[in-house]
Design goal:
single chain; 204 residues; mainly beta; Jelly Rolls; seven-stranded mixed β-sheet; 20 strands; 3% helix
């Protein structure tokens, strides 16, 4: 949906505006929220929502780490090659390497997941799920690149996010749950320590 070079201007993406596109391996569908592109052939990080109809092999993302959060469905198991099974519960972020062959098996029926994928050499991604009681506030951190309203309604400065809506680059905005409790998924992305060490030092 969006492309960014870490520009902090806030953008609202409504759930109904997201366009589905096939996974790179053709075994699923994703709705891209934002991609930070490094080159024509690679991205720095990407956020999207995937529809999962049934068992499937996940797409391969060389050099990337992935954070997978079920936002619909009763649960699932991820089987990573050479590793033990990873149990995934609704609204609990699960982290794993995006370049290890991974098989998804749902507990039952179709599901939907919120995905964050980042180049591990350049970026560090963090995903937190927050439950906000009615009329209570939630403040994003300075490193926040997206807040996704999973349930209920969130409001900031007169702008409302309904379930399925996303605000990109919310900065330090303060949100409030309107009418009832709400669930929010907050994504923070910072430069990886290794990338910071390799960054050139400005010359006087």
């Amino acid at each position: 949906m969006g492309k960014t070079g870490m520009v902090p201007a806030s953008v609202i993406i409504r759930a109904g505006d997201l366009q589905p596109r096939p996974w790179p391996n053709g075994l699923g569908v994703t709705r891209e929220l934002v991609t930070d592109e490094r080159t024509e052939a690679a991205f720095g990080w990407q956020i999207g929502i995937a529809d999962l109809a049934g068992e499937a092999a996940f797409s391969h993302f060389p050099g990337c780490d992935r954070i997978f959060t079920l936002i619909e469905g009763p649960g699932a198991t991820l089987t990573l090659e050479g590793r033990g099974p990873l149990s995934c519960q609704p609204w609990v972020p699960a982290s794993f390497p995006g370049d290890v062959p991974t098989h998804y098996r749902p507990a039952a029926g179709p599901a939907r997941a919120f995905n964050v994928i980042a180049d591990r050499e350049a970026f560090e991604a963090r995903v937190a799920v927050r439950s906000i009681a009615a009329s209570h506030p939630l403040r994003c951190g300075a490193a926040g690149v997206a807040i996704f309203c999973g349930q209920g309604t969130l409001e900031t400065d007169g702008v409302r996010l309904e379930a399925g809506d996303t605000m990109l680059h919310p900065g330090s905005a303060s949100f409030r749950a309107i009418g009832q409790a709400a669930l929010a998924v907050i994504v923070e992305i910072t430069r990886a320590e290794s990338a910071q060490r390799l960054s050139p030092t400005p010359q006087e």
